[in-house]
Amino acid sequence: MRTLSKNNADILGEIVDLLIPAKENLPSPSKINVVDHIDDALSNTPKLKRIFVEGLSEINNEKFLSLPKIEQIALLKKYESSNEAFFSQLLRHTYNAYYTNPIVTAGIGMTGKPPQPMGYTLEKGNLTLLDKVIKKGQIWRNP
Amino acid sequence: MSADKKKVDVLVIGAGASGAAFTWKMAKSGMKVMCLEQGDWLNPSTDYSTSSTDWEIHRQTDFNPNPNIRSLDVDYPINDTESPIAPLMYNAVGGSTIHWSAHFPRLKPSDFRVKTLDNVADDWPLSYFDLEPYFALNDEMMGVAGLNGDTAYPPKSPRQTPPVGLGKLGDKIASGFDKLDWHWWPSDSAINTVEYDGRPGCNNCGPCDLGCSIKAKSSTDVSYWPKALELGAELITNARVREITVDRFGKAKSAIYYDSNGEVREQNASIIVLASNGVGTPRILLNSASSRFPDGLANSSGLVGKNLMFHPYSIVTGLFEEDLEGHKGPTPLNIMSSEFYETDPTRDFMRGYAYQVVRSLAPLATALSGHVPWGENHHEVFKKRFNRTITFAVIGEDLPEIHNKVTIDPELTDSFGIPSPKIEYKLSENSRKMLDHGIGTATQVLKTAGALEITHDPLKREAGWHLMGTAKMGTNEDKSVVNKYGQTHDVDNLFIIDGSIFVTAGAVNPTSTIQALALYIADHIVSKSGKFLTQ
């Protein structure tokens, strides 16, 4: 952890698992180092770091870690509308880290590999559906 | 200031779509041609992110098409606070073809005659058929995947490679067009689908906008430039042009630029050609004001920077029940429809629009789309959307309006202090009505094809890919900046070859037409070169 304090990292770890709960073959964010990825993203962007540190400290003031899960979720819903600047960045960077992880991209039905170098096989499609278009003939306007 | 390079016959400013095509043609004709490019070379094998797992994040950051967001040192910032559409561009060898979607439709014959046909704007001083041989030559140089026989065009030369696959998604939406008996056709795309001209066929990886690491997409750094350099053209990268100077006779004399070390240099030429896009070209002309040209170079008409046209886009997205495998295939390239392209007097707007059918959003973009909630239902909703959306980009013909313009911002500059452009743009009532009509008809196709839910964005902000009209062509010197050969009315050895010279915008992506014009102008300059080179 380069940017966030341990306490803030612990809070963030709890939050990201509430934003994206584990399900079947899709892991919880804390299991695939999402907090570390967010910490990396903050390290080069002072403005973003400030938004996160201030937002997390606001949540910390509510003794977030000691609350039951249902109250934690209610608190996050409150911040979603009251601190939109922080919450939108929180969601963006959580999703950024989660949906670029190969375990997740494999879990949603892709190959788990980046687009290149393998690419994908694509069906040519049914070009006989053009028959009606062709039968109608020219639609361009001849000036 | 250094002037250590010998005077060249032709100096081109900008190595993008038009600059590359033009420079190649000049070099092929034996002219001593040099090109100054603001950016650098990118190495497709190592500089693109599509082989990394975090490729989608690069779209938000260093490969964002918006220079204000990307904020690389080679970019110049643009004040776009007074525009609902953000101008997009890329600065590198290849210019904006690096990040383009490679849509390659031509403007249609009626686009060149809008005054005569519909009594709007102005006719172009040349026709589709004047450009036809240059369209064909350019197609051959770029390599176009497509299917001959589109009923929305006059016959075209044979496409170089077969069309990009429709996939399950294309079949699904084609069924909607088919039931409505509306026009659709596989998109003409500047992408190899099989090997062509030493470049491989596309492997359908998806994100063309992040650069093509296998060179299947024809950005001009991999199509025109290698050939131009082989013919002896000279390309200077990291050369940021500050201004064009004139001699005591009022002829263009040189370009003053900053090199990669920030040193000011001067390059003299017999002919100077601007190929810096519809924002960059008026920026250079307005930054080149002098005692002889106090309102900016070639601006006696007062029209440099005026009549800025984007193609305004509305985005309509349908959600389907079945998995359409929408992540497979070049994301933006599938089907185009010209059903509502031409003017129909029964509608409440003039001219028309096209649709581009776009494949589904990638995983991260799906999560960030605003339709997937966080919390307990996250995965369930994500699964219902991922690979199951079809998007229509409704691309409308924007008519020229004098108040839509590029000027020089009084404060903003790039990192070397070169004044930056400011954009002022308002969407016209005609364009709004046109787009609203397009939202309605796109919704109809999606519903007919079986969409469960349809949402739309009435005017996409990050959509200013097409920058046109800011130095328009014409025969009347008071009402245009250049003549039909791109030659400025005020300075006879100064030419413009990019989208700035468009008289009207049509309702299709402009690159194919920009490049055909560049080749047409190049032919003219070669035929008259004796006149220019003796000056």
Number of domain units of chain A: 1
Computed Rg of chain B: 22 Å
Number of strands of chain A: 0
- The figure for the number of domains of chain B is 1
Beta-strand segment tally of chain B? 16
Under CATH at level 1, the class of chain B stands as Alpha Beta
Task: Please give the largest β-sheet of chain B.
Answer: 7 strands, mixed
What's the number of helices of chain B? 14
Most extensive chain-chain interface: A-B, 50 and 72 residues
Assembly form of the protein: heterodimer
Structural features, described:
The complex is a heterodimer of chains A (143) and B (535). Chain A has one domain (6-115). Chain A is mostly helical. Chain A has helices at 6-19, 34-43, 46-60, 69-82, 84-98, 102-107, 131-136. The N and C termini of chain A lie far apart (67 Å). Chain B has 535 residues and is of the alpha/beta class. Chain B has a single domain (8-533), classed as FAD/NAD(P)-binding domain (3-Layer(bba) Sandwich), CATH 3.50.50.60. Chain B contains 14 helices and 16 strands. In chain B, strands 1, 2, 5, 6, 7, 8 and 16 form a 7-stranded mixed β-sheet that branches. Chain B has a 6-stranded antiparallel β-sheet with strand order 4-10-11-12-9-15, with helices on one face. In chain B, α1 packs parallel to α8 (224-230), α1 packs parallel to α13 and α7 (167-180) packs across α12. Chain B is globular, with a radius of gyration of 22 Å. The model of chain B has no long low-confidence stretch (mean pLDDT 96).
